[in-house]
Amino acid sequence: MSTVDPAEISIDDVPTGLAAPKAGPSALRAADAAHKRLSRPWASLAAVILAVVWTLPTFGLLISSFRPEQDINDTGWWTVLSNPTFTLDNYREVLGSESTSSLAPFIVNSIVITIPAVVIPILIASLAAYAFAWMRFRGRNLLFVGVFALQVVPIQVTLIPLLSLYVKAGIAGSFWSVWISHTMFALPLAVFLLHNFMREIPSELIEAARVDGAGHVTIFFRLMLPILKPALAAFGIYQFLWVWNDLLVALTFAGSSNEVAPMTVALFNLTGQRGNAWYLLTAGAFVSIIVPLVVFLSLQRYFVRGLLAGSVKG
Amino acid sequence: MDNFADKLGLMLASLVLFAAVIGAVLLVVSLVERRGGKRVAWYFVGPTVLLLLVGLIYPALSTIWSSFKDATGSTFVGLDNYTQIFTSSDDLIVLRNTVLWVVLTPIVATLVGLVYAIIVDGARGEAVAKALIFLPMAISFVGASIIWKFMYEYRSYDPSVQNNPAQIGLINQIIVWLGGTPQQFLINSPWNNLFLIVVMIWIQAGFAMTILSAAIKAIPSDMVEAARLDGVSTWGMFRFITVPAIRPTLVVVLTTIAIGCLKVFDIVRTMTGGNYNTSVVANEFFDQSFSAGNEGLGAALAVLLFVLVIPIVVYNVRTLRKAEQR
Fold this sequence. Notes:
heterodimer; A: MetI-like fold; disordered N terminus; B: mainly alpha; MetI-like fold
């Protein structure tokens, strides 16, 4: 095999032990058997009940977020069937720039935090992963095992010393501290996963490029990054969700400043200070949820793969 | 909206700065390479190694060191902080709660995920059915906490009175419909712990289902076929074919969720703040470190998390290794 079709290399090929041998024609037969199973009414019923139970909480939140404040406080959201009154006021309050309880600045903060916190670790990690996969140097294996092992370090262990480092460096409470923290915390898993992907690329390909006189930098940009697009996307989405949904890192490094704090911190504060303001909480929660949901629905394939790949994160 | 532009500007600046630094490093690499330089690899791994030294290794060592010191980090107190964790009644409750989380959540979430994966496997509408269970996975813990706080919402209720206010939390309303008395789910200890755990189960079941479903689809068909020809019952299929075949994956799912539960913070913090006897180690760490000002105890709690994670990860990795060798 002299060339590789990028489409052929996917996260399915990662030797995580979770990756399945291709199901092939047997999948059809298995599906048939399962269909028979499902045709039993109790199995279908169980599936439907589970699906409903799992969906109702979010559904209730969504419905409530469109109900007038008074209605939310006085009646359950299920009463909309007999008394359908809807309004966009809650969202105006939450998204509007003039209202005091506006979450709009925090949405901006979330975006400003998330994009660099996804892009930067991926690039740094893919450089290291390339070296671990395709370059020979002293101490390579030891170093790689070390990076891999660092996955077990819980973030909690690092917070206080990092905070004092940031204070000394004068970047405490700024976007920089949050970006740097997320980058550092992402590296062990990112290096490990991207290394696994890179090892899957046939060595003939790299050797051919070397013979043609390409340096490592050229190989990295011209060969590796294009081939690895699916893997980078998978890890990128995993990291995106991690950062967008994070509370701990944000609370520690950005919690004191409304100029930097993301949505999760704003919602957390809102729950603490105005725990009964359901008209704000429901709409606010839904605004924060909608971004990852859209990502999930539009990039489901990568999303699931990223999850499968990231499942070993300590 | 000037502020908005400023922030985006800062973000772009950071990205440009980052690109410039990496670009400079790679430029140097190209030059070194052209001269036949030897240590090219170090430029590739350098940034990662540096960041990990500063961001993980130094802080971890520093925290371990602090865990042997007193509240202000000035005097050395030996194992006092650890003794306190395992003897003070408050901290024992924290430990008990953490054990509840780590034991209950993985088992229930994995069970639900496994059963659901088997039921919908190959069924019509499988993708949609899976997406419904999987959706909570995309929601932040804070968002999920708000969703469930709303489910648990309680309105004062007096059975001797005619005009009680309507319940707006679905669960209490169902209890009323069934003729029961509404409960303050998040306040009544120790049961409130279980109601917090439900939130984590709700989130993690989708994760378990997705990964187990992939494993189930990979079970060799001849195995299933042979068992079927032998007339193995549905339960027998589950017990003797499905479960043994996906055992490594089951272990990975269980341990991964267990690790997540060990470090669970957001849910407890958002829903109860650790009050009403619901605190867990990760929440107690945050309280001691950032609110109570007891740096030593906070550090010891963080180290405890670290120590508890290690055996689970090691077990996980060994299972993966074994599975790979097959």
